[in-house]
Amino acid sequence: MTTRAGFVALIGEPNAGKSTLLNTMVGAKVSIVTHKVQTTRARIRGVAMEGDSQLVFVDTPGLFQPRRRLDRAMVAAAWGGAADADVIVLMIEAHRGVTAGVERILTQLAEIGKGRTVALAINKIDRVEAPVLLGLTKDLNERFEFVETFMISAEKGHGVETLRKWLAEQVPESPWLYPEDQIADLPMRMIAAEMTREKLTLRLHQELPYQLTVETEAWEERKDGSAKVDQIIYVSRDGHKGIVLGHKGETIKAVSKAAREELAEFLGRKVHLFLQVKVREKWLEEAERYDQMGLDFKDGNA
Ligand SMILES: Nc1nc2c(ncn2[C@@H]2O[C@H](COP(=O)(O)OP(=O)(O)OP(=O)(O)O)[C@@H](O)[C@H]2O)c(=O)[nH]1
């Protein structure tokens, strides 16, 4: 069997329908991903299987005219995700057409999208008549050389399967990036790992060994409705392990408690969180590419 796998970035103005499309393509589980945990790094929003292809959707915060510093960082992150992706899909709203925001994105796309596979998805086609769509398709394709144009309704599901099949053909031949039995809760695993990393950062301040990463090793749904989450904190040196554990394990206990509480509140149910610290000298090298993408590299999976 020839497998394929790759990264897909959905870009577009806020409200274009990116989350809706993701949910339709990936399944209901992603909807749990909210904007609550903000990060400037690209994150995985969901993974879809289509035939022998694995499509990993990376998050791109809505692209808008950045004013504040935080906004600028978010927009940069959005483009960062797109620049690393194998396929970029620009989503626009059919009834709004080429807005000033869309024009701005197209200008940036002229640089980022050069030589890449960029498709156009005109969304919310249920809101306009056919002639409008044809005019819009022509207009947009004159402004940028899209490899393909799709007319979809993310909400009603029209055209979504065609788009997904096409994406499956675009990603390169590659082993799958994530085991199939993990993809359903992958976004949750990543969010949980980020929560723990955030608590470590808060707790350790400057002491924090910068070569540190958190991975969610196992996620188990229990019959009583609670979730059992096992995480490993990887540090690159023995000395760092002591810092993370703290005097008599105080640091790790406090981090664990804070992360557990936040995760429980986020999920709205009870959480049992187990943290383990491991020394792995080479993790940085192994994980480099994934880390840059904001992905949690799982040992031995790639
Ligand atoms: N009529 C119609 N509405 C849609 C369609 N797809 C999405 N919407 C609606 O458009 C709104 C925005 O959709 P989202 O999926 O949240 O948009 P988004 O691009 O993820 O927005 P941000 O998270 O702000 O970047 C929601 O109210 C959706 O219900 C569609 O195909 N037709």
UniProtKB/TrEMBL annotation:
Keywords: Cell membrane, Cytoplasm, GTP-binding, Membrane, Nucleotide-binding, Ribosome biogenesis, RNA-binding, rRNA-binding. Residues 12-19 are annotated as: G1. It is found in: Cytoplasm; Cell membrane. It is a peripheral membrane protein. Residues 59-62 are annotated as: G3. Residues 204-281 form the KH type-2 domain. Residues 123-126 are annotated as: G4. Residues 152-154 are annotated as: G5. Residues 38-42 are annotated as: G2. GO terms for cellular component: cytosol; plasma membrane. The keyword Plastid does not apply. An essential GTPase that binds both GDP and GTP, with rapid nucleotide exchange. Plays a role in 16S rRNA processing and 30S ribosomal subunit biogenesis and possibly also in cell cycle regulation and energy metabolism. This is GTPase Era.
